Amino acid sequence: MASKSLQYDAAVGGTVKLPEEIDSVEFNEERLTEMKTLLRNIASTEKQTKLMHQSLPLHMRRRAMTYNPKRLPRKFRSIHLAQFSKSGLPEKKKRPSRKYRRKTANLLKEYERRKRTNVWLETHIWHAKRFHMTAKWGYKIPYTPTRKVYRACYRATAKHCLLQDTSYMGCIEICGPDETLKNGLSRLCSQEIGLTITAKAFLGGRRSGNVHLYEKDRYPFDCIGKIRFLWRAQDAGSDGRTLWIFAHPVFYKKLIQEFIGLFGLKNVHRHDNAMEVNASSESKIKEITTSPGTVRIPQYVNKVSGVTIKELKDALNYFRLAGPLSHVILGKALKTYKPSDNIRLKHWYTNWSEDLARKKVIKEQLCFWDNARNLTSTVEFTPGLVIGLVIADPRLNRPKKRTKALPGTIMTPQCLPENTIHTAFSPLWDHSIRDRIFHEMQSTHELNLLRAKECLVPGEKCAFEDYVQPIPVLLIQNPGSQDAEYKRLGYGSGWDLIVPAGYGLAVWQTLIMWGAKPAGLKEFDMQALETGVDLNTVPDTVLGKSEADVEYEKCWNKYFSRPNNRRVNYKKYAIASPFRCPWGQLVSEWVAAANPPKYYVLRDQEALGKIQLSLQRKFNIKSAKLSAEALIPLFLTMKSRGNPGDNSIICLPLRHDFRKNKQQGASHDNSPVYTEPLRKDPCQKERHLLRSSHLRLLKRLRNRRIREKKARQRKNPGTLIRIARPQNQTLIREQLVKIRELWLPAKPSSVRNQCSRECFGYVTRSSFSLSEGKVTALGYVTAKGLEKLFKICIKGTFKVLVRGTKSRCYRFATIKVRVEQTPF
Fold first, then answer.
1. The dihedral of CA 358, 359, 363, 364: what is its sign?
2. What angle do CA 69, 70, 75 make, to 5 degrees?
3. Is 517 helix (H, G, I), strand (E, B) or coil?
4. Which tens digit of pLDDT belongs to each residue from 113-124?
5. Closest CA to 230 of 217, 253, 247, 216
6. What is the pLDDT of residues 154-198, one digit of tens each?
7. Separation of alpha carbons 432 and 438, rounded Å
């Protein structure tokens, strides 16, 4: 071991030795230049290329120094601030504390800022604390609760009450002479579908209905969508009529444009410039973000014919209650308003109720509702019945804790008085009354202050409650399923509740306190599948096409965001279009037309009834004379295990498929009837060659840029020259389009013969049905394909083969025709 007095190099046998002393003068002279350079770089900010926080030693640097000067030593902070002030970058301020941000005024400003992107419903704050929210159709809509409630929501529709806020449905008010409105609206619908808007059953205003609207004189093509309509109950001798139409926000503007062209209307405010208002920008922002009750309503007028249209979008709250207890909950939550005789009131109801004719209306409504509120079910009412009520403020009629409303005394329908035109009359139709109700509404905080001041006995009525203004509402009955062979009779029945602007949250919370189950958009789709009617996936409507395009783009981008070895090769699975249903190409191949013909969904009640009789072998399908361009709506029920999923293909079976299915049933075998053989991808080699040639081209272009850089460096020695940026964005974009076309062509070569079994339809929505206990699906098939199915299925029930897009297994499913028995 080496001695401690020896140095390290000498201890290991080396020859290097350190001097025993250092000459300080010589050492300082050698380090003088380095010290001068260091001091000059620190003191000067004019000639140095680095910023102050970049000039510090490595051990003193912090990542937060760029935006927080307090991270630097105190003597360098002024230099750092001077550098950032010259660059023009704003100094980032510290985020305000949560206590400051949660102040009421600051919170409201933040809400108004966030409302500019998507419109909020009046119940948004309540939903945002309990639901997953999604931006859809220009609104912030509750999608699904944060807890598991899927089965609970089904039980609510089957045994209790499910509540949904559908206030995003836009309202259109049409006013004008009776004959003018009838002649114009009759051109947008057809009597072949069922009762139209101008049917006598609806003109009185006592009943509401649903109908499909088309472009002017274009039936059965160019369907706009399904709307709900309601005529205003008018006094005798009045020529003018008023109609409310509730439309989905996707085709709301298109419907407005259709009405403008139909009645020859002009915009009343067309000369107004929305940005040149005699007000400050802050007041303009406040007008945009305030409640819809104060926003100017767009209006279109034809002075010659006297027709007027108003856009009441976001001016009304629209709630939907479904389930057998929905009527009981409304009976508990809606308490009719009965003013005190010895108190002089100052709200809108005082002047409105002084008319003798209106006193008769109020008396009939009170009598009808007092007898109707004790009924046990909604199905006991007339389908589409409209009831107008004036109720007390719902915030004064809540239980202390959430209570499940249950029916009391059982009454029979014979005890219910006949509904008249007075039953459907409501002051909610009057725009001036709605505005006054909105502006004179007392906040919940004001009511709580009054209750704390005047309430002596908890739970007892206070004196101030007699002075709180009442609110008018409209009730519209939904009969639910009317065909016991298709779905359980009465399933989905309930009420639609229309409430004026400002009282949406108050009514919503009252219904929740009385036992209604809140649901979102996901549960709304579940209910649509359970009832067998899904408006979001109808292929010929504006809503159906829009939703299909959105879903296609989402699935397309998700598919190509995966690496090549993680993508499903649909060509090997013999799937031509996995992300959308190519209806036009499917119909054209069955019609054998060169150009894709226009297609439409068959809604003719008589034709659908004949097809249903044909499935029961009571009618010849040839006698129905179906158009080759028609798509037949079907309800499919899987006979064995497996969920095919959306966009699944519906195929025609072969004779030996039926024999194999019969053998499997006898032996309780749940294996698929037929499995598509795995095919080869004809474009796989071409994709590999195209990809390798593309990479070689990019490498060659890069080498060219490097050679250009080196040549410039030789011409200008000592100058810093960077490699040029690649200008190959167009090249890469074209390569991406080619590769994607080889993976999934935009227009497949064949849809009808894409696999071993002949395809004649597609499934638009598929899921496990809790009411059926099986996997059910909604789909559409071509008329020619359905006629061919009747030739194949000689005996037994009619069955089709269904295969998912990610599976090679075919399984049988039974079919039913979706026939809407009533337009309500």
1. negative
2. 85
3. strand
4. 888 889 999 999
5. 247
6. 999 999 999 999 999 999 999 999 899 999 999 999 999 989 999
7. 10
Among 14-28, 523-537, 649-663, the minimum mean pLDDT is found in: 14-28
Residue from 228, 517, 475, 464 nearest 334 by CA: 475
Q: Is the pLDDT of residue 735 over 60?
A: yes
Query: What's the rounded Cα separation, in Å, for the pair 485 and 532?
Result: 12
Q: Which residue has the tokens 């005798």?
A: 236
309 contact partners, CB below 8 Å, separation of at least 6: 172, 173, 174, 175, 256, 259, 260, 263, 265, 299, 300, 301
Confidence of residue 281 (pLDDT cuts 50, 70, 90): very low
Place of tokens 């993508």: 567
Among 249, 794, 263, CA closest to 535: 249
Separation CA 551–CA 580 (nearest Å): 8
Q: What single-letter amino acid sits at 498?
A: I
CA distance 231 to 16: 108
> What is the C-alpha to C-alpha distance for residues 238 and 690, in angstroms, rounded to an integer?
75
CB 639 within 8 A of CB 672: no
Is pTM beyond 0.90 here? no
Q: 404: which DSSP letter?
A: -
Coil vs helix vs strand at 254:
helix
Q: How far apart are CA 789 and CA 145, in angstroms?
A: 43
pLDDT top residue among 550 and 345: 550
Mean pLDDT value across residues 284-313: 70
Q: CA-CA distance, 397 to 576, in Å (whole number)?
A: 58
Task: Quick: pLDDT tens for 242-279.
Answer: 999 999 999 999 999 999 999 999 988 765 443 333 33
Q: Are 198 and 178 in contact (CB under 8 A)?
A: no
* Sequence-ordered list of residues with C-beta below 8 angstroms from that of 447, at least 6 positions apart, any chain: 393, 395, 396, 464, 468
Q: Which residues contact 366 (CB under 8 A, 6 or more apart)?
A: 336, 338
Strand pairing report for 240-247 and 131-136: unpaired
Q: Is 121 helix (H, G, I), strand (E, B) or coil?
A: coil
Q: What angle do CA 525, 482, 164 make, to 5 degrees?
A: 30
SS3 assignment for 707-766: HHHHHHHHHCCCCCCCCCCCCCHHHHHHHHHHHHHHHCCCCCCCCCCCCCCCEEEEEEEE
Helical ranges in 568-625 per DSSP H: 570-573, 583-591, 605-615
Among 555, 561, 613, smallest CA distance to 581 is for 555
